[in-house]
Specification:
The protein has 101 residues and is mainly alpha-helical. 59% of the residues lie in helices and 0% in strands. The structure holds heme C. Heme C binds at residues 31, 34-35, 37-39, 47-48, 50, 58, 61-62, 72, 74-75, 78, 90.
Length: 101
């Protein structure tokens, strides 16, 4: 009985560790949801359009914001929350999205 309990606990522990390590890099789809509060995916928006822009333009902008080469407090705070790899994957993802009418 006791032994079974320990095995169950060990299994739960393993699952927690395994799920934690796979969650470290956020998916571009997930990150993009945080962008759409401001950059609404619609041609009627007033904010800059981020979907369907060339990937290298997007990644350069995002890294410029992150490292303060473009001065924008809001975008700097946001981009500082993600690794360069996550931003690269995000730029790649966004460049392949189409703008909703
Ligand atoms: C709190 C609002 C807000 C959120 C959330 C936000 N942005 Fe921005 N973003 C701005 C503002 C403000 C600017 C500068 C004004 C502009 O260019 O429209 C900007 C500018 C940009 C630009 C430059 C546009 C250009 O053509 O010069 C890009 C690219 C961009 N954001 C991408 C993103 C991405 C990707 C995310 C999600 C990780 C994001 N933004 C989240 C507010 C936001």
């Amino acid at each position: 009985m006791m032994e079974t309990d320990l095995r169950v606990l060990a299994l739960i522990g393993y699952c927690l560790i395994a799920s934690h390590s796979t969650a470290e890099q956020l998916s571009p789809q997930m990150i993009a949801m945080a962008c759409r509060g401001c950059h609404i995916s619609s041609s009627t928006q007033l904010m800059a359009v981020i979907e369907g822009q060339p990937k290298n333009l997007l990644i350069n902008k995002l890294l410029d914001y992150k490292y303060g080469r473009i001065n924008n407090t809001m975008m700097q705070r946001i981009t500082l929350g993600y690794s360069d790899q996550e931003l690269d994957a995000l730029a790649d993802y966004l460049s392949r999205q189409t703008l909703q009418p």
